[in-house]
Amino acid sequence: MDAQRVLEYGNRRFLLLLGQAALYTRVTDHDSMRTQLARVLEVMRRPHVHVGVVPWNAAYTVPRNNAFTIYDGRLVTVATYTAELNLTQGHEIGTYEKAFDRLLALAVRGAAAEELVEGAIVDQGES
């Protein structure tokens, strides 16, 4: 819930990327998925939150192995099945920043990203 508070009341800027497949990966029932996707849509419309969605037909140039988070260019956390890695070395951070930039170049943002999320919400009603 702390993360939700930061999104709600924080003054930080967020740039988030996700693959379109994540919008369709069912982790709960359809009603709950629609609710979660509606929340994604709500959050991405905040002025300090920018969400990019990498469409499924994008030619990925970065391996999609693990989720990672970059914190102000000072820390990268990498989620694995067994641990969370905290990377602080400049060359490691640089590797993830380059990967993020390559993924960002593939992503759609703004209205186009919102349309993909809205489409996923509609599709949840049809499954």
Q: Going across the major beta sheet, what is the strand order?
A: 1-2-6
Rounded to the nearest angstrom, the distance between the terminal CA atoms is 30 Å
Q: What does the radius of gyration come to?
A: 15 Å
Choose one word for the global shape: globular
**Low-pLDDT segments, ≥5 res:** none
Oligomer status: single chain
| Number of domain modules | 2
> Per DSSP, what share of the residues sits in E-state strands of 2 or more residues?
15-25%
The secondary-structure element order is HEHHEEEEHEH
Q: Helical residue percent?
A: 40-55%
Number of DSSP-assigned strands: 6
Overall residue-averaged pLDDT value: 91
Number of helices: 5
Task: Report the sheet with the most strands, covering strand number, pairing sense and barrel closure.
Answer: 3 strands, mixed
- Which structural class fits the helix and strand makeup? alpha+beta
Question: How would you characterize the overall build of this protein?
Answer:
This protein is an alpha+beta fold. It folds into two domains: 76 residues, no CATH class; 48 residues, no CATH class. Helix content is 46%, strand content 21%. The chain contains five helices and six strands; from the N terminus they run αβααββββαβα. The protein has a three-stranded mixed beta sheet, sandwiched between helices. α3 packs antiparallel against α5. The protein is globular and about 45 Å long.
Summary, kept brief:
This is DUF5753 domain-containing protein. The protein is α+β, with helices and mostly antiparallel strands.
